[in-house]
Amino acid sequence: MNIIQKIENEHLRADHPRFRAGDTVKVHTRIIEGEKERIQVFQGVVLRLKKGTTDSTFIVRKVSDGVGVERIFPLHAPTIDRIEVISEGVVRQSRIYYLRSLRGKAARIKTKNAW
């Protein structure tokens, strides 16, 4: 293992739950405004999960006032306080960009049944 991989492994976080594309998640991020720090929650559907080491990211999409808002979060960033999985979706693709063009009931994702 070379020096770069050792440094990257020190910064990896293992406290996140497992999630995949199609899942609805709440991402709690730390926002620093001047001297104050607060937690802001972003809830939406995971469109994509890019795996890797410290450069792994995921895209979360929500609809706010009829406008689609997408945000890219680095998975191992210290600004992410925690991630909560609200529901697990059943999708057949790992990148569900087709949700961008769907509106209303057509944009729903089936959830896994808890038997």
Automatic annotation (TrEMBL):
<keyword id="KW-0689">Ribosomal protein</keyword>
<dbReference type="GO" id="GO:0022625">
    <property type="term" value="C:cytosolic large ribosomal subunit"/>
</dbReference>
<comment type="function">
    <text>This protein is located at the 30S-50S ribosomal subunit interface and may play a role in the structure and function of the aminoacyl-tRNA binding site.</text>
</comment>
<dbReference type="GO" id="GO:0006412">
    <property type="term" value="P:translation"/>
</dbReference>
<dbReference type="InterPro" id="IPR001857">
    <property type="entry name" value="Ribosomal_bL19"/>
</dbReference>
<dbReference type="GO" id="GO:0003735">
    <property type="term" value="F:structural constituent of ribosome"/>
</dbReference>
<dbReference type="Pfam" id="PF01245">
    <property type="entry name" value="Ribosomal_L19"/>
</dbReference>
<keyword id="KW-0687">Ribonucleoprotein</keyword>
<comment type="similarity">
    <text>Belongs to the bacterial ribosomal protein bL19 family.</text>
</comment>
<protein>
    <recommendedName>
        <fullName>Large ribosomal subunit protein bL19</fullName>
    </recommendedName>
</protein>
<dbReference type="InterPro" id="IPR018257">
    <property type="entry name" value="Ribosomal_bL19_CS"/>
</dbReference>
<dbReference type="InterPro" id="IPR008991">
    <property type="entry name" value="Translation_prot_SH3-like_sf"/>
</dbReference>
<dbReference type="InterPro" id="IPR038657">
    <property type="entry name" value="Ribosomal_bL19_sf"/>
</dbReference>
